[in-house]
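Subject: Sanity check before I submit

Could someone independently write out the structure tokens for this chain? I want to compare against mine line by line before I put it in a report. The sequence has 658 residues.
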Amino acid sequence: MNLCKCGKQNKDMANAIRFLSADAIEKSNSGHPGMPLGMADVATVLFSQFIKLNPSEPHWFDRDRFVLSAGHGSMLMYSLLYLLGYKDISINDIKNFRQLGAKTAGHPEYGHLAGIDMTTGPLGQGITSAVGMALAERMIAAKYGDDVCNHYTYVIAGDGCLMEGISEEAISVAGHLKLNKLIVFWDNNNITIDGKVDAANSTDQIKRFEACGWNTIEVDGHCQKAIAKAIVKAQKSKKPTLIACKTTIGFGAPSKCGTSKCHGSPLGAEELENMRRALNWTSAPFEIPDDIIQAWRDAGQRNIGAFKDWQARAKSKGKEFNDVINGKLPKGWDKELNQLKETAIAEKTKVATRKASQMCLEAIVPHIPQIIGGSADLAASNLTLTKASKTITAKDYNGNNIMYGIREHAMAAIMNGMALHGGIIPFGGTFFVFSDYMRPAQRLSALMGIRVIYVLTHDSIGVGEDGPTHQPIEHLASYRCMPNILTFRPCDIVETAEAWQIAIETDNKPSILALTRQNLPLLRSSAKENLTSKGGYVLSEAQNKRQATIIATGSEVSMAMEAKAKLAEEGIDVAVVSMPCCELFDAQPIYYQEKVLGTAPRIAVEAASKFGWEKYVGLDGDIIGMDGFGASGPAGELFKYFGITVEEVVDSVKDLIR
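---
Independent answer below. Compare away.
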């Protein structure tokens, strides 16, 4: 390795990052210049000498991954992409920083520009998803070989990332699994928005990381030679590595460096001009000297030969490996799953949908090499383990199950990282109510449009004796209002299998499977068509003219069917609509929605918050559900106590049609 000599060209390469960043933020009159200025030397060494990438093939599977966990410093990322020669970013994009419709958004956003490996901004999410990327790299290498999967995951994180609680879960998992190809650069500048870090935090981060099983190195973050030596040392470690880079925030800004004044505001024209003089930078705004831009472009071409060699090796690995890394499902992957549906119908299988989900997984996992499961210490309750499950350990990464421990925060973000890395379809389980711990990462799953599957069991007051702390009342409504996520609440084993099919085949958004603890009867009589893909459908039509329509989800669909039978005894003819996924139903043509819902009075039944059902039942309809939190007691008694019963549905229909 040709270690950096801290020569003039190296300093100027770092200053190119500094001035592109500061000029863009100044023009935008918005942004965070402090981190790009302070970490420019670290970024220069990493990207010009070490990181494995190819701007001409930005999605190269065996490239090193880079996560800017301190996403507020996004201009550092944009400057690097431009300087390295990525084709989809121009100097006009740099000038357009933070403007409406710009690819150079306020924080780096996945999908906006090639070279951005994930959307960051919520602090702590980046470093935690990077753990997922590093774990994915080791799992795929263990299965298919280091000759086709052998790369590092690099992270730049700030004090905010390390103070957020999720980081504790992240570094604990990484240390436990000895993810030695994960290297984190800590921008140790002792400054946050409100002032100095030590006013709010006195944690010894070095000791903290070491206690979690990490290798740690401390360097001067402005000495490029020392930074290069630290990276070489980190690459040889058998543990994940924290490189604590002692930096000056806003390096080069004469009167604002080292203070919170340059953290989240433009430097100002006068300060920026003084910075030019201080760093002997004579170029006009957005102009980079030819020799410096060429040095950066040469750095971007360092790995062309390595890429071509990898292509040949990857091709020789055969179809399965290449399908896996390209996100292709095996042909006929759901054959056994379809057979499961037919058997369930023939045998009238009555099971809890959490158990139905496990039965589905038994039929899925052996046939999809890229599927990886796990649970936040609730596998026995979530039923996420199968006969084909093999738990990953620090000694053997060739498995398909992760024991996350009691770490919902980290589990969700790690799954994001695995999905973003590629070659993996992750699913993870916990109780539905504990998805509150996962919500920031789930929101990022939806925002990035990635395939992550959440198996969330114990979905209602049907949890029973555990009481209101474990009874998810508002969760269905809250996820239904989150954009770009599918929320399934299946009513039986057939709908559960259909939901799994959709979740696995949908590669541009995450999915939630909200599943029951209690057994549910089989309600479907045919599985020839995946009706769950419609979101809602008529499960049982009226014999003659509809007098009312009962809409229900999950465990309440069987309640609706019982109510239909009782009403029929009294000469009242109603239809039952199962609505396993509101998002998919809303995506159907209006004529289909109107046909399913009908023109007769409508009643919605769900053992959860009533919020959101108004748009289906209308102002003259009725909603049977929850107006407050649950209570502790046997499930059957709770449904009676809260008035979610067959009798209540029958009475509601009678009241509406009078």
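---
OP: Matches mine. For the report I'm noting this point. The two ends are 84 Å apart (CA to CA).
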